[in-house]
Amino acid sequence: MRLAAVLLVLLPAATARAQDSPGTKLVIQQGGREIGREEFTLTPGRGRGAPGTSLRATASYPASNPTLRLAATLDRTPESALAKFQLDVEGPNGPTVILAAGSGARLIIRTVAKGSEAGRELPGGPDVVLLDAQAFSLYSAVVDLATPAGKPLTAVFPRTARRASFVARRESGAAGTRITLSGDIRGTLSTDGQGRLTRLELPEAGTIVSRAQD
Question: Where do runs of H (alpha helix) occur along 138-180?
């Protein structure tokens, strides 16, 4: 099936996800001002009963009368390998669907927009995580890979093909986990006891993502 045809199938699915009520709500601030909201679920298991984890997220910028909406899907195997990635973006330029899949040491990315489609290959592997500058729950993938000694990782941002090398160092406690990020991505990541993102600070971007109180 050509990706142009896949677009017709995927966009309605994104709309349906946006109508769900995910379990965790995040407030996104930049420079001390709220710029958006994100909601996500992180659950064990994948489609058709396969083992692993499944992340579903929606983000809106701004939260009221948004001009940009994102819907993200990230499924991973029990070994934290990529099983499925999909990012649906609805903005002023129309809808865009981005798909990614691992193929050995290669990462294959497909982008479908109105009237166009494109594909590219990038270096992949077990130490590659897929992130986005406006879908912050995707940082949950870093949690399972971080180690007390510090795990070198490579982030790929599928919308822009940006690559960033960083180290994720884990500190676990009774209430959750704190992960320090250093390198091309600098900041701190905190989770609750279930591994769900509760706070993310990226000082260089002036971004703070925190769990909503309401």
Answer: 140-145
